[in-house]
């Protein structure tokens, strides 16, 4: 941050490189929104990922970022890279550049998410967004209407929308931002709970699943064999529930995860 402040004062073009690093840090912190300390600084974290934030940035603003985020950066887990050592000769020869005019530069997903998140906040009552939050079935018409709405409001360009659809699907992307309505998540498990006498640990395990669904919109069943679910039992879900019940829970979660149009 000190280097960024110095480069900004000198008007050095090297500031842009450090700016991208700061945006990258903000994007990594956004993924930790379930941490209370991070959630407290979320408005700043989201603003940092927009072009507008950096237009009139000052040394004082950079120092404010430093003070507010310095204790949060250590929460970001580094991506582990396995070192691979090879011992063979290159027989391919010299490479040469190839021009691909039809290949775009890709989507700046952090900024796109920021714009869509604000769109969601303003248009929470849009019928398709309500359906997404409540895990109600979507139709092709629902998604087409939402696409039209996003384009008409200038939230995203046509090529960016196409990239998101190809990568993960528009419905999946939006659910990851809206989260799942907590009441809808609880209702999905109501039949399972009503049919049996569950222990305190089993009920708390289900509550943790519901919390995750409400926060991020999805839960990968593979997570049920990892922390924090292994806090209840080292074997995860199969240590807390009998095998048949664990299978039922996983099926319920997979049903909630499904957001594809019928």
Compute the number of structural domains.
3
What's the total number of strands?
A: 0
Pick out the low-confidence regions: 99-107
What is the H/E order?
Answer: HHHHHHHHHHHHHHH
Gross morphology is: globular
How large, in whole angstroms, is the Cα Rg?
A: 23 Å
User: In this structure, how is the largest beta sheet organized?
Assistant: none
Explain the overall architecture.
This protein is mainly alpha-helical and 262 residues long. The protein has 3 domains: 74 residues, no CATH class; 70 residues; 76 residues, no CATH class. The protein is built from 15 helices and no strands. The radius of gyration is 23 Å and the shape is globular. The N and C termini lie far apart (49 Å). About 3% of the residues have low confidence.
Present the secondary structure layout.
Elements: H1 2-10, H2 15-30, H3 36-40, H4 42-47, H5 51-55, H6 59-69, H7 109-122, H8 127-133, H9 140-152, H10 158-167, H11 170-178, H12 182-194, H13 200-216, H14 237-240, H15 243-257
Brief summary:
This protein is mainly α.
Output the keywords.
mainly alpha, 0% strand, globular, 3 domains, 262 residues, single chain
